[in-house]
Amino acid sequence: MSVQDWFEKRKEAQIQRRELEARAEIEGNPDLWTKCVLCDTQLLKKDIEVNRNVCPVCNYHFRINAEKRIDLLFDKGSFEELYAGIKPTDPLKFTDTESYAARLKKAHEKTGLNDAVVTGIASIEGHKVAAAVMDFDYMGGSMGSVVGEKVTRIIEKAVSLRLPVLAVTSSGGARMQESALSLMQMAKTSLAVSRLDEAGLLYVNLLTEPTFGGVTASFGMLGDIIVAEQGARIGFAGRRVIEQTIRQKLPSDFQTAEYLLKYGQVDVVAARKDLKSTLAKIFAMHSGKSNG
Questions:
Q1: Which of 19, 79, 222, 262 sits CB 3.0–4.6 Å from 122 for a disulfide?
Q2: Is residue 154 within 8 Å of 118, Cβ to Cβ?
Q3: φ, ψ for residue 227 (rounded to 5)?
Q4: How far apart are CA 227 and CA 208, in angstroms?
Q5: Ranges 4-8, 86-90, 149-153, 270-274: which has the least confidence
Q6: For residue 251, what is the DSSP state?
Q7: Rounded CA gap, 147 and 130, in Å?
Q8: Under a CB-based contact definition with an 8 Å cutoff, are residues 230 and 209 in contact?
Q9: Domains in the chain and their CATH numbers?
Q10: Full-model pTM
Q11: CA gap 291, 120 in Å, rounded
């Protein structure tokens, strides 16, 4: 890109930003607009929603919940949810600033979900898959006993039905309120993935913003093919913890999907608008069927 092209592109973005901010100001109601996390542009919420929850100015991909993710990735009406009735318990009677039971109740009221993952059978451009879709809105997408159980069950269902598996991750890591019980889910889900591998079935990971901790260290990074959504942050420990440990400043793009692609830790990085077609091509290639 030439210097002139760069300035033209920047000028175009600034004009677009001013126009969007003007629209937001005209609308008047603060509930109708939000600010982009990356470029600080005031945006009408309806403009973001129309654009798949992606900033029209800087292309920042806003975090989305499991319901929206399912609508974007799978063929309309094809998602058949399984194991929705599995609910978490409070075996340790854990309490920090408030009880675990109270936190679970709040998370359910906020999301309508019983835990941080939705599992089921669906199709992507006609290709049938077993899927696990995590939801960060439920206690930061943390992995406790229910997440581990549902991910394991959907993989076992895939083995019995001879289906490929897609795991869509968005998680801060293991759920501290379940202590060692949550850490056990790392081994449990990893073993389930190994059974899928032994059955000769395809396992695809889709890493979204953010994917960290125990999920990254288990079923989140064991895929035969690992796809990451554009701009997603992916890692084990957080950036600040690593910097404090090694006492060095990390690159600005450290732990982004693009950084991981550069160093061979993921296979594909795709924009949200391209994810469905990208996944469809992957499943088509491994099914032996042409995707056009």
A1: 79
A2: no
A3: -105, 140
A4: 9
A5: 4-8
A6: P
A7: 15
A8: no
A9: 1-62 (no CATH), 63-287 (3.90.226.10)
A10: 0.88
A11: 23
